[in-house]
Write a structure and sequence with these properties.
- This protein has 554 residues and is an alpha/beta fold.
- It folds into 3 domains: 161 residues, 3-Layer(aba) Sandwich (Rossmann fold), CATH 3.40.50.970; 158 residues, TPP-binding domain (Rossmann fold), CATH 3.40.50; 196 residues, Thiamin diphosphate (ThDP)-binding fold, Pyr/PP domains (Rossmann fold).
- Helices cover 40% and strands 16% of the residues.
- The strands form 3 sheets. A 6-stranded parallel beta sheet has the order 2-1-3-4-6-5, sandwiched between helices.
- α9 runs parallel beside α12.
- It starts with a helix and ends in an 8-residue tail after the last helix.
């Protein structure tokens, strides 16, 4: 058989379900081989970046990699933003690129560039296939590294002449093993710190939303009452209705939840990446006692110098702590202040629940209505922009992986293709993507992909006719902002042109009913709402008055 046939067989053996992408001449053999597969579905996208974002959403929701595909040269460069986003947001993903024949890689030639070198900084591993017989080892390694904690992206480049080679090799059967776990002595040290603390708090990062980890975290909190702050990427690690849920941290300025860290004498970080909420923002004096529990050792940083490191499978680490708590007990903690903070945040969430405004709608009102409309298992995907900050602060979850917010690489344009990927994983759930007008138009062409797939997704666009987050940050720092304004299309005609249902809502009192109708519609629906981003400045001023000046951002 051909090498391209073997590559497809290797992907099948690994359980890969989807390949998203835009083919080219140099991966024609692979595409013909893929078309013969009965186990892998190819999704043709309208841009390679959209393909990468779809694969990223699939990976974040399932823990298993999908593949995104592009040809050499511009196909590969179009993939790289979405791949970098997946890699920094810890989503398992396989990148498959074509390449020119090996006979011309050493010299100037049409569309030839060093794709492997270009992808090396944004993947866990990148390589070229030079011999067909090496494909079983290469594909096994690519998938294993993509899945291994912390998950991320890997790239395999297949030159067109190698793709045609005959081979008698066969796929390697995947063998998956339990992750390494911490030993008893280090678990005892962490327990001793818990026993001595009076005001502990938990900071849950993206690693805490693995289902096994979330289950053990909830067990720990039920036993101890310790409050949990989640990063943007850890929403749903604990149920928003639990008394110990202290909501989200990650804004670049002080906010009510961060007071829980200020008041604490022990911070337990779980699956936490520094990119999510830099420690200089919550440990400025470098005086916090920190227990770091994660799959990997802590990053070296002067503001993040753990007293104990629990490096191993996070769910097992939490189980070991839970077993010690059950056997030995813990003192009664002084956590009344955490309950106080929770009540203050709840009051802010509900402040605009009964808004009756026309012309623009406050972010808080839209998110209040959306939370009431969506079921616990439904999924919200945020694009990047000012709306992301409001979603992080005001939209909370019952279950892990029901709100996906990019917060490592933070690329705009992810919500629409991500929503398509989410629909393919969970076709029975309501899938809602939220984007600003700037971010939505960056991958607007994927509206056709959604229509072709008859995807049951709803996209909500917050319209403000400018790059609102940049305006917000510039105003905070300089008191004014540069020219960031732009025009938009006629949204309802755009929806019609792509075969979508379209809605525009200008009154806050009508927002919930319009959203409910759109979410119930079969196929893709677009809802556009003019957003009142005067609230950005008001939030900055309120937080500044309560605490200290600082930029809103992440």
């Amino acid at each position: 058989m051909k090498a391209s046939d073997l590559m497809v067989q290797c992907l099948e053996a690994e359980g890969v379900e989807y390949v998203f992408g835009v083919p080219g001449e140099e991966n024609a053999d692979f595409m013909i081989s893929l078309a013969a597969s009965e186990r892998i579905r190819f999704i043709l996208t309208r841009h390679e970046q959209g393909a990468a974002f779809m694969a990223e959403a699939y990976g974040r929701l399932t823990g298993h990699p999908a593949a995104c595909l592009g040809t050499l040269g511009p196909g590969a460069t179009n993939l790289i933003t979405g791949v970098a986003d997946a890699n920094m947001d810890r989503a398992p993903l396989i990148v498959l690129t074509g390449q020119g024949a090996t006979s011309r890689l050493h010299k100037e030639s049409h569309q030839i560039m060093d794709v492997v070198e270009m992808f090396s900084p944004v993947t866990k591993w990148a390589t070229t296939v030079y011999r067909a017989d090496t494909l079983p080892e290469i594909m096994r390694k690519a998938v294993r590294l993509a899945r291994m904690e912390k998950p991320g992206a890997t790239l395999v480049e297949l030159p067109e002449d190698v793709a045609k080679e005959d081979t008698g090799a066969a796929p390697l059967a995947p063998r998956r093993f339990r992750r390494a776990v911490i030993d008893d002595k280090i678990a005892d040290r962490a327990f001793e710190l818990l026993a001595r603390a009076r005001r502990p708090v938990i900071l849950a990062g993206n690693g805490a939303i693995r289902r096994r980890a979330s289950k053990q975290l909830r067990r720990l909190c039920e036993a101890t009452g310790i409050g949990v702050l989640n990063t943007f990427m850890a929403k749903g690690a604990v149920d928003m209705d639990a008394d110990y849920c202290l909501y989200t941290v990650g804004l670049g300025s002080k906010d009510l939840p961060t007071l829980a860290i200020d008041e604490s004498d022990l911070v337990i970080t779980l699956g936490f990446d520094m990119a999510e909420y830099h420690p200089h923002l919550w440990n400025p004096n470098r005086d916090k006692c920190i227990v770091h529990a994660d799959f990997l050792p802590a990053e070296i940083d002067e503001h993040y110098h753990p007293d104990v490191e629990l490096v191993g499978d996070l769910a097992h680490t939490l189980w070991m702590l839970n077993e010690r708590i059950a056997a030995r007990g813990l003192p009664a903690y002084d956590l009344a202040y955490q309950a106080d903070l929770r009540l203050q945040m709840q009051a802010e969430f509900a402040e605009h629940a009964e808004d009756d405004t026309r012309g623009t709608i406050r972010p808080q009102k839209m998110l209040w209505d959306i939370r009431r409309l969506l079921r616990p298992e439904d999924i919200v995907l945020s694009d990047v922009g000012a709306h992301k900050m409001w979603i992080a602060r005001h939209y909370h979850c019952h279950e892990p992986n029901t709100c996906l917010i990019p917060n490592g690489f933070c690329s705009m344009g992810s919500a629409l293709p991500g929503a398509i990927g989410a629909h393919l994983v969970f076709p029975q759930r309501r899938i809602l993507g939220i984007a600003g007008d700037g971010g939505f138009l960056m991958n607007v062409q994927e509206m056709e992909t959604a229509r072709r797939l008859d995807a049951d997704i709803t996209m909500l666009v917050w319209e403000d006719h400018e790059y609102g987050l940049i305006a917000w940050k510039q105003e905070n720092e300089f008191g004014r902002h540069t020219d960031l304004a732009f025009a938009n299309p006629d949204w309802l005609r755009l929806a019609t042109a792509f075969g979508w249902q379209g809605h525009r809502v200008d009154a806050s009192r009508d927002f919930a009913s319009v959203m409910e109708r759109a979410l119930a519609e079969r196929g893709p629906s677009l809802v556009v709402a003019p957003v009142d981003y005067r609230e950005n400045r008001r939030l900055t001023e309120r937080l500044g008055d309560m605490f200290e000046p600082g930029l809103i951002g992440s």
